[in-house]
Design goal:
By secondary structure, the chain is α/β, with parallel strands linked by helices. A five-stranded parallel sheet has the order 3-2-1-4-5, with helices on both faces. α1 crosses α2 and α3 runs parallel beside α4.
């Protein structure tokens, strides 16, 4: 098994923090690199200027603020990483990025910010498990 590139999708939840910590440990054990990924909501297509650009700026700023604590965790751990912030549904984008970037392993939380009680596995994690062409490591 040769794992050199780990995708770590995050949404700001406590589950994401746990998954990032696991990704760091695996990265250190395997001498790998992490790609930290966040998917934000779609940009509104019905707004005209200047409101459209204002909405794009606000979504971009919120995404950067969301990933900032994760970047600090990665920098403190002194692991190699890159960041990807993308628009779209994470259940589709995560497997797509994994394919394009030739990811060896996806490490993600079992549930996201919604954290519906009683669900065994979150809908995004479930979609990623079924759509990804590489192994998926689900953390609690």
């Amino acid at each position: 098994m040769n794992i050199k590139l780990i995708l770590n999708p995050v949404d700001g939840s406590q589950h994401s923090i746990h998954s990032t910590n696991y990704a760091i440990e695996l990265t250190k054990l395997l001498n790998a690199k992490i790609i930290l990924m966040h998917c934000h909501e779609r940009f509104p297509i019905v707004l005209s200027e200047p409101y459209f650009q204002q909405a794009v700026n606000e979504i971009g700023k919120a995404s950067e603020e969301l990933v900032e604590p994760f970047i600090k965790i990665l920098e403190k751990a002194e692991v190699e990483y890159d960041v990807r912030i993308l628009e779209g549904a994470p259940g589709n984008k995560i497997p797509e990025v994994a394919r394009i970037e030739k990811i060896d392993l996806i490490v993600m939380g079992s549930r996201g910010v919604t954290d519906f009680t009683g669900l065994l596995l979150g809908s995004v994690a479930h979609q990623v498990l079924h759509k990804s062409g590489c192994p998926v490591f689900i953390t609690k």
